[in-house]
Amino acid sequence: MRARRRTRGAMRLGALFTPLIDIVFLLLMYFMLVAQFKTREEQFRLDLPRDGGIPAPRDPFALPADPVRIAVRSLGDEPGALRVRTDDPALGSPETLEELARAVADAAARSLGVDQLVLVRPEPGTRWEHALEVVSAIMRAGLPRVHLLEASP
Amino acid sequence: MPRRGSTRPPLLEPNLTPMVDVVFLLIVFFIVVAQITTSERLDLTLPRLRDAPSVEPGDERRVVLNVAPRDQRETLGGAYLVAGDAFADDLAGVGALTDRLAALVARDPGIAVTVRADRAEAYERVHTALRACAEAGVARVNLVSEPLEFVR
After folding, report:
1. What are the tens digits of pLDDT across the range A50-76?
2. Hey, are the CB atoms on A140 and B53 less than 8 Å from each other?
3. What are the two backbone dihedrals, phi and then psi, of residue A41, each rounded to the nearest 5 degrees?
4. Per the count of CB atoms within 10 A, which of A33, B14, B90, B149 is most buried?
5. How far apart are CA A76 and CA A133, in angstroms?
6. Using the beta-carbon criterion (under 8 Å), do B140 and A132 form an inter-chain contact?
7. Global pTM value
8. Residue B53 in contact with partner chain A when CB distance is under 8 A
């Protein structure tokens, strides 16, 4: 009698372990799935010209302004290792990304409107990262209408 | 003592284990399903941007266009990947890519194409994809980057 009772108690204790392990493994799976092993992705919006042409400005009363043209060339593999070139009198002659951002911010505050179109033309072989950096910097500096043109020297 | 315990109806014993089991299984199931839907992202080293003018994705329909890195083109079967289909980098491939995107635009004119490309990708290859989007009538493109931590 005594022996039977002991075995029954041991069985009950053993049966309690299975759901515990169940739940522990489920928790483990849950946290492994929830943990983000990859770095965060950001995305930003770029409006494409319709039918290859240049879209109409948002403000119908705005005077048609000549687009600002900016060329990009890669110098190395690092972010920011690039040179920009522009012949627009409103921007001066910025060369690095920081100078470009400052010049665009100044020009956007003084002479250029928000509807000002900026055409970015990377040279052939430019790293995608550098083209994207220039577009991002111009948008951040206050001119959101940026188009990426076909590569040309 | 044991007799009183045995007279208690067994249904009233609080046994939460199966319920927790099922709840966690449901949670895991939905997480796994959600990850299947994002698996059309190719594993790329994305461009690093400091302070990108990023937006939260809205409720518009989206499709991902991956530009495959050069060393993965053989295994993936093409340079441009849209919703499981691979398109080559030549004239016919880009034409097929444009047709595919135009079919998606015809189904939903407000569709946004998420363009993902490697940071070392030559600009011409990405521009080919952007031009295909423009020719297909896609009004909006989302460019994907990875946040660059402020170094200094």
Report:
1. 654 455 555 555 555 678 888 888 888
2. yes
3. -105, 140
4. A33
5. 14
6. no
7. 0.71
8. yes
